[in-house]
Amino acid sequence: MPTKALVSILFLLLLLAMAQPGSSSQGYNAIYNFGDSISDTGNLCLGGCPSWLTTGQPPYGKNYFGRPTGRCSDGRVFVDFLAEYFGLPLLPPSKTNGTDFKKGANMAIVGATAMNMDFFKSRGLTKSVWNSGSLEAQISWFQQLMPSICGNANDCKSYLKNSLFIVGEFGGNDYNAGIFGRRSLDEVKTYVGQITDKVRSGVQTLLGLGAVDVVVPGVLPIGCFPVYLTLYGGSNQGDYDGDGCLKRFNDLSGYHNELLRQGISSLQSKYPGARLMYGDFYNHVTQMVRSPSIFGLKYGLRVCCGAGGQGSYNYNNEVRCGTPGACACGDPADYLFWDGIHLTEAAYRSVANGWLNGPYCIPAILH
């Protein structure tokens, strides 16, 4: 009769075995991702990162790839961990020439927005948007790849029903454009319905092309991000919640996510054969800020790669990671935030696990 200690060890070994890549009883033949810098794997860095792209300079990528790859992290991002789990190659950027995209492609690109450029032109915000890789543009890039992935429309519907799609997050850069463009938060809030409708419409287009399993992430709690805390913080403690985050900006994120979930629910009713999953970035990151140790981290609001210890968050907008004068910590696995705008590889690993097994994806990918 095994002892309790032996039973515990056997149970732990079983859990570890279950957590190995490719061990899921639920498999996918490919992953197709759409998004912004949170999940870009190098669409702006093909043939080398341009010198003007700070996220394409060292020390980005140093802790896994040993060099910048266009990922806005010290290493991998969450889509890399999802691909590894399902035994798939790391998602190649969709703009890579001569690449086989049958096992996945990443349309995400730094600076991407949900809305098209005409939305920002009509509001005088073009200076705040430097990328034309909107959600509609990314879907068109994917459509251009489809013949090489799966052939004709009928064959594609058969193939894509066994692929995992991730659509977002989208919206973060749309709100950044307004906020950094010095528009009032009241004005920026008027954009929310249009932005979430655009995301819902994009998901519907992909469902029409044959997607079945789709994760639609919400936006992150931007009021917890060191870039916002540094630029818009102040001495009024009433502006902050109990986690040290700026309430008014998190209210914007929460409003977006509420409308997005309503849109996902309406699509689920319209497409009962689809499996639409809400990726809950907001609550996951909030919990990592509140209780970093639960997720194997030490620091919630402090930046790893930043301005050499300046300020409460180690963030200086004029000395950002990848620019002269900035430096990275030696222990990024202890941090939630890599550069004050993006997360560390350790945080993205946690995001992927939270989506695979719950509770930060509703329903969880593996459930």
UniProtKB/TrEMBL annotation:
Give the Gene Ontology MF terms in alphabetical order: hydrolase activity, acting on ester bonds
Q: Any stretches that span the bilayer, and where are they?
A: none
Q: Which domain of life is it from?
A: Eukaryota
Quick one: signal sequence residues?
1-24
Question: Which SUPFAM superfamilies has this protein been placed in?
Answer: SGNH hydrolase
Q: Establish whether keyword Glycoprotein is in the entry.
A: yes
Coiled-coil regions listed in the entry: none
Family per record: Belongs to the 'GDSL' lipolytic enzyme family.
The name under which this protein is listed is Esterase
**Where does this protein come from, organism-wise?**
Brachypodium distachyon
Q: Which gene encodes it?
A: LOC100837861
